[in-house]
Design a protein that fits this description.
Layout (H helix, E strand, L loop, with lengths): L2 H38 L4 H9 L3 H16 L12 H38 L4 H27 L3
Helix pairs in contact: 1-2, 1-3, 1-4, 2-4, 2-5, 3-4, 3-5, 4-5
């Protein structure tokens, strides 16, 4: 296997793994907070679930970039052509924004979501404000997704 192919494969894997790690951590953190609220008032399950799901989107973004890299680099076809080392390195570098942007933003979004879940516990009618606050962190995951996508698409 050519070094370029290995690097491109690593790029796809890095995008999926790091963004997925962040989402798993974030959804777990928010789930712990939500479980506490729901154990006291089961009627707040729906609002808490929305807050818990928000940090999960970064994992989806990482998966998207991983699939785009795999398709564009021809990693999913049998007998694919060799990828030059510099091209493989470009795929790996293109994956870094969503890998690390997804990892970090999911964890911080979870912290905001936990605060929003605590707000739901005290004032259930204010859940929309908590959702908006958590979505503000999502902006940076979307920016990381955008730059990774543009970098991958720009690779010849």
């Amino acid at each position: 296997m050519e070094l370029g192919t290995i690097l491109a494969t690593a790029g796809a894997a890095v995008a999926v793994l790091f963004a997925g790690f962040g989402s798993a951590i974030g959804v777990g953190m928010a789930g712990q907070a939500a479980a506490g609220v729901v154990s006291e008032d089961p009627d707040r399950f729906g609002n808490c679930l929305v807050m818990q799901l928000l940090p999960g989107t970064q994992g989806i973004y990482g998966l998207l970039i991983g699939v785009v890299i795999a398709i564009k680099a021809g990693l999913m076809s049998a007998g694919s052509a060799a990828i030059a080392t510099d091209t493989g390195l470009r795929y790996l570098i293109a994956a870094l924004p969503i890998a690390f942007g997804g990892l970090v933003s999911a964890i911080y979004q979870a912290k905001v979501a936990c605060a929003g879940i605590n707000m739901i516990a005290k004032k259930p009618n204010e859940s929309g404000k908590g959702i908006v606050m958590a979505i503000m962190v999502e902006t940076y995951a979307i920016l990381a997704l955008l730059i990774s996508f543009l970098l991958v698409i720009g690779i010849a």
